[in-house]
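User: Structure please.
Assistant: Input sequence and predicted structure:
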Amino acid sequence: MNYNRQNKSSSTLTIRAMCAIVFVVFSLCWLFFFQPDVMAMTQHVLSGGLTHYNKVVGALIITAVLFLLQFAVYSFTRLKKRTHALTYVPSMLLLAMLTDVSQQIAADDVTHMMPWWLVMVIIFGWLVVVLLARQIQDVENDESYSLLSRPMWINMLVMSLLMMGVAWLGNTNAVFHFRMKAEGLLSAGKHEDALKVGSKSIESDANLLMIRMYALARTDGLGEYLFEYPITGSSSEMLPTNGKTRLLLCPDDSLYKFLGARPVEKMEPVRYLTMLQRRDSVPRKIIGDYLLCGYLIDKDIDRFAKEVDKYYVLNDSLPKHYREALTLYTHLRANPLFVYQTPVMEEDYNNYREMERQYSTQAERKGRVGEQYRGTYWYYYDY
């Protein structure tokens, strides 16, 4: 009898150990690799910027606390055998709630996408299942609990469903994660690294555009590289001056100090930049690049052509997107203010138009031409 009891205890311990390993590995990976930027933003907002999240320490502490919660639940429910994985439901639910952060962040609070009534329904449903599992467990026949046993795989299936539930409930929006990671790098002064975040993705939003424009301005690359990134929004969202976009992790004081002055009231970015030009202490080239790129984002090539010579000599040393815009302007307008032509850009533009003529439908042109010319101002302007 003692041998059988010890053997059964050792076998059920195998199930507990496997569930624990799966939970700890998943929690650490989820927090360390997938959600550190969201957690950093959450702590930054809730602490008013007074504390900073460390992804190593944070992942270890949160995982340890959630594991202690599971141990407390197990001590209370005593669920073993094929239902042991149910003791991880509260811990998995809390893990999901920690990363279930809405993209709409208030200035001093963090909101969650999952409603509280759903949380209560999940908890109530779990309690009902636990009561039923306790009754089944008391009459369950003894069987093998080895790594290849049926009870083991039932527990692994439940753990898999719980992990999928965390991924489903947590914030997995790619653009939001790009935004948080890029802001964190900007805040650390790593402007080049911030520009690499999500650079191969075609997804974006107005906040991410604003962040990338700031990083490009810091590296003197606005006119050269801006349209290599997906553009979402308009010039009214390229700065947080009117409240349409905002910085969460990177302090906006650093942006306004870089540009020359903080706006005294909410105003459109173009008006703010125009007012800055009247000050002698502001960086003229940076302000000019912001304005010129704002005109190009709005596809206002006439105003761009009218203003560009205030900041640049009109030759082949212009930044790439400015050369592309002036080439386009020269070809689109019957009576342009001036004719801008360089042999290399003219040949490239003619090849672009020739490639367009090869396809009959708009959708086909957009796809085929985009394979070669996405990242040019011409492609942005036309498609």
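The mean pLDDT is 89.
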